[in-house]
Amino acid sequence: MERKRFNFADGAKIYLFAVACILGVQLVLSFILALFNAEWILKIDWVSILLSLLIQIVLVSVTVVYCKKMNTRFEYGTSATKPLGYVIPIAAAAVCFICFILSSVAFDLLLGIFNYESGGGIEMESLPAKILGVIVTVICAPIGEELVFRGALLSGLKQRYKAPAAIVLSGLAFSLMHMNPEQTVYQFILGCVCAYFTLQSGSLLPAIITHGVSNLIACLTEIIVPLGEAVDKVIYALIDIPWLFAVLTVVLLAVGLVALFFLGKLLAKQKNESAEKQKDFAAVPPRVSFDGEVPSSSAVALHEAESNKKMGRVMYVLAISVTAVVWLATFAIAVLTGNGLIRL
């Protein structure tokens, strides 16, 4: 059977299904824990990490099952690259951490104006938690999330929008999917970088590596206490000098964006033959002939392409709206808690 061309609607559906499944899993787990009065189990660090692994399994399952059922696949696979193509993403992850950490901190300070009380990240205090934490955040999360947001969603967005818009929409979806206010800025930038690298390389590998190394750096600051304390010390010292903090935030943001732009251009030159010859399953609507007439078969294909675009737009807006609502709810609850208006 001939494989169906992947389109914008396909990418948006996978995105929506992934969001729905994630929220569904979280709701079911919350109900079960509440039913058996077992919320205490979430305080065990390695258990929380295992639950986050479940989310990644859901992301991969949704993508694979949909593509298999619909007999299609998204454009971007895991084509290999030249050796330098593996080094560039590692350098990009370092650039992201160095150049965008102050932007993330600045957003946290903005949230602090509203007395936003952070829910905290994944704790990795015990040895099992540290081992599982590295496996899940450095290997599993990049694979699962990149399959959905750069593999499926970006493949679809590219058929509907120009590259800059597709990159931003992919990054926005990725950021809101985490539904964690304090991570919003950094995740948005990282999502855009991964989307840009995917477009430049024609492969998911650079995005997976960039994502994985970025998470590894975050893990190391958590696991290696002196390293984390050193980073915090520098940040707090800069915060104590507001003008210097503001200047460095803007300068590092600009330097980071420029550096990543050129790293992406360099990455585009690292494609090997398999990436260059990778078959494109993007749906391209037929062109209207010069006399203004469209053959009947082409007219049907054109109508179908337009329908897919409309459906994709609806699915994308619905999915991103759901995550935005959850983001706002998380923010509101944290603010109310921080202001002492409610207690959890």
Describe the structure.
This protein is 75% helix and 0% strand. The chain has 344 residues and is an all-alpha fold.
Short characterization:
This protein is mainly α. The chain has eleven helices and no strands.
Mind sketching the topology for me?
Layout: H1 8-35, H2 45-69, H3 84-112, H4 127-160, H5 163-177, H6 184-201, H7 205-223, H8 225-239, H9 242-268, H10 273-276, H11 296-338
Helix pairs in contact: 1-2, 1-4, 1-11, 2-4, 3-6, 3-7, 3-9, 4-5, 4-6, 4-7, 5-6, 5-11, 6-7, 6-9, 7-8
Count, helices: 11
Order of helices and strands: HHHHHHHHHHH
Through-space gap between termini: 55 Å
Number of strands: 0
| Largest sheet composition | none
Strand content: under 5%
Overall, the morphology is globular
Q: Which regions have little confidence, pLDDT < 50, spanning 5+ residues?
A: 278-294
- In helices, the fraction of residues equals over 70%
Mean pLDDT: 86
Rg from alpha-carbon coordinates: 22 Å
* Secondary structure category: mainly alpha
